[in-house]
Amino acid sequence: MHDIKLIRADPAGFDAAMARRGLGPQADALVALDAERRAATAAQQEAQARRNAIAKEVGQGRRTGADTSGLEAEAAALRERMEALDRKTAALDEELHRNLARLPNRLDAGVPDGTDETGNVELKRWGTIPEFSFAPKQHFEIGEALGLMDFEGAAKLAGSRFTVLRGALARLERALGQFMIDLHTQEHGYTEMSVPSLVNDAAVFGTNQLPKFAEDLFRTTDGRWLIPTAEVPLTNLVAGEIQAEANLPIRFTALTDCFRSEAGASGRDTRGMLRQHQFRKVEMVSIVHPDTSMDEQERMTRCAETVLERLGLAYRRMLLCAGDTGFGAARTFDLEVWLPGQGMWREISSCSNTRDFQARRMNARLRTADGRTLTHVHTLNGSGVAVGRALIAVVENYQDRDGSVKVPEVLQPMVGVNRLIKN
């Protein structure tokens, strides 16, 4: 959410920021609506002041026996006017709030221009892309041949974009999530949380999925929403609260199921596990002082990179361009892992700094150490990482000619075997 005061102070700067997002001028309409709202508020205050003055005059007139009928008629008219102004102010407040809520976050100055993923900038690479003496297969080919990945059974239960995992592959998925959550809590300073998978409208609005992305979510018959990521409940834990500066940073992590309608994914990644309606992900969320959020984003991204490094998976870090940066983010780093079966890099983690964009929507603030100043916190979120995509990467990168899959050494104690073989 944007601060209308800042838009009023620099309308040209705001329009330039929205132009980087591919939007036309916005400031004039917002400022005009705000001016109308402020004028209605001022008129309401003037009417209230006059009513207060009339009340005193009527009181004095009654004590002296003077005729107050004219004053009382004016007071009645003012009451009707104030009621009308109340309705007008509320309607203008709602319209301004709605118009501000539909606009994306301002981008960091360092975000490169560009209209889509082709404008993203590679910042670093880690690891070696594996070479095979045979044509590497995709994960679903390997999983089905091993008898450990069942798409037909999942379709019978729930339709397309679901998967049933069996035996050692199900244990591998569980081990991946356990490994990630243990790493972030034991080495990276995150507090593990267990959170609801169902949230209300306010929570989904606070992390900017509503109103723009409602079609990407699943809604229950009682009006709640299935979480698309644990970012939603974790970040909203500080909604409406004032944090003491000394209590920051706050770092949460959770391993949850996530639910997405994939409304815009028609025809894309229809085979396999890359794009599912239900998947598991380890999420990291940070609530920090505004002065430290850029450093926190680097720290968070390194936490996600450590997961991939411990698993021995080659990856690259990308700085997303203006056209590929998400609605609520000021800056995003994507981590892309190499998938030999596809012969390409695929995103496995996004780490975003939303600055105060979500905090304004949630009214999440901090009181500075001097005890006098209130300001909005900055919030960050990142995948630490997507468990299903990590499973895909392990299966494809550790495959062997005979169709078996080596289990990464760090996971072997939890999986109980060092190799996945035909079930």
Structural features, described:
This protein is α+β, with helices and mostly antiparallel strands and 423 residues long. It has 2 domains: 4-101, Helix Hairpins, CATH 1.10.287.40; 117-420, 2-Layer Sandwich (BirA Bifunctional Protein, domain 2), CATH 3.30.930. It contains 13 helices and 17 strands. The protein has helices spanning 4-9, 11-19, 27-64, 69-101, 139-146, 151-158, 167-186, 201-206, 231-236, 293-310, 357-362, 387-397, 412-415; strands at 121-126, 149-150, 164-165, 191-192, 198-199, 225-226, 242-244, 250-259, 278-288, 315-319, 331-339, 344-353, 365-367, 374-376, 378-386, 405-406, 419-420. Strands 1-10-11-12-15-9-8-4 form an 8-stranded mixed β-sheet. Strands 7-13-14 form a 3-stranded mixed β-sheet, with no helix packed on it. Helix 7 (167-186) packs across helix 12. The longest helix has 38 residues, at 27-64. The chain is elongated. The mean pLDDT is 96.
Write the layout of secondary structure elements.
Blueprint: H1 4-9, H2 11-19, H3 27-64, H4 69-101, E1 121-126, H5 139-146, E2 149-150, H6 151-158, E3 164-165, H7 167-186, E4 191-192, E5 198-199, H8 201-206, E6 225-226, H9 231-236, E7 242-244, E8 250-259, E9 278-288, H10 293-310, E10 315-319, E11 331-339, E12 344-353, H11 357-362, E13 365-367, E14 374-376, E15 378-386, H12 387-397, E16 405-406, H13 412-415, E17 419-420
Parallel strand pairs: 4-8, 7-13
Antiparallel strand pairs: 1-10, 2-3, 5-6, 8-9, 9-15, 10-11, 11-12, 12-15, 13-14, 16-17
Helix pairs in contact: 3-4, 5-12, 7-12
